[in-house]
Each structure stands twice: as structure tokens, then as C-alpha cells.
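Proteins fold reproducibly. Next comes a concrete instance:

***
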Amino acid sequence: MGLSVTVAAGVLAFSLISTLAAISFSVLSSAESGIMLDRALWEDFREHRWTVSVEVDSVTFTNPTTLRINVTNVGGVGIPESEFKKVDVLVVYTAAATGIKVIEYLKYNPSGSAGTWGISSVYTSGVAGESINPICPCPTAGKGVWDPGERLVILAFLSQSADTVRDANALVATPWGVYGYR
């Protein structure tokens, strides 16, 4: 009887060690693939971070609830229209009703509504329109590219009326953290 207890304890210990080893191997394999994925994302980020650049050229009111923001891609690569939903647009203006400064984050919506931004038009070499990778300022957009040198006219639809006598500012940030501000 003494020997069977020892054998049972040995089998149990072996099973426990084997299970722990299998779990450890599984965790290490997952961590390694996660590290590789993170490395690939980091390389993509680094590549775009150094080649993407945008400038906010001007910010003007078209009416008390709409800002016109001219932004130029001054970088070396195009920004796919499919990435516009990841572009951050923040505007700073003075509320007409209270006189208090408002900082508002706007989401991309090609249809345009309060609290969103969309593209009104695209200029290439100072001329409206484009022939390469055209961006469609419409709800079915998605296949165009904001190419280097092109200027977007962004309409920012504010959630409240602004005091149009006072200046407004805008920050436009790409998905890779590069931004322009005016």
C-alpha cells in the first residue's frame, strides 16, 4: 500500500508538471505572436509617422454652425479615404449663447450633421477637382486617396452656434498621430 501511494503521487505530480508546461508553452506562443503583431503595427506606424504631414491652412466660418477648414497634405504619401474615420478633427470656438470657449471633437460623417465633419471639395494645384485617386465627398465614399499636395476643404458642423466675430481654431490629426493646427 505504501508503494501505490508513492506511485499515485508521482503520476499526479507528472500530470501537473506536464499540464503546466503545456500552458506555459501556449502562453509563450501567444505572447510571441502578439509581439510580432505589435512589431508589425509599430513598423507601419513608424513608416507613416515620418512620411505623413498635414497643414491646416485656414479656418473660417461659413455660418454660425459651420466651419470651413482648408487642410493640405504636405507629406510624401497619400492618406486613404478609408482611413478618414480615424482622422481626428478638434475645433475651438466661442459659443454664441454663453461667450465660453468650446473645444469640440468631431467624428467623420460624409453626410454631415451636428458634431461631425465631412469633405466639401478637393483642390489639386489650386484647382478644384482631381483626376488621380479621386475622393468622393459623398456617403458612398471610400476608395479615393488624399494625395500629397492636395488640399481638402473640410466642413465642420458644430453642435452649437458660435460667435462668428471671434476666431476659431482647428486641429486635424492623422491616424498616425501627425497633426496640423491653426
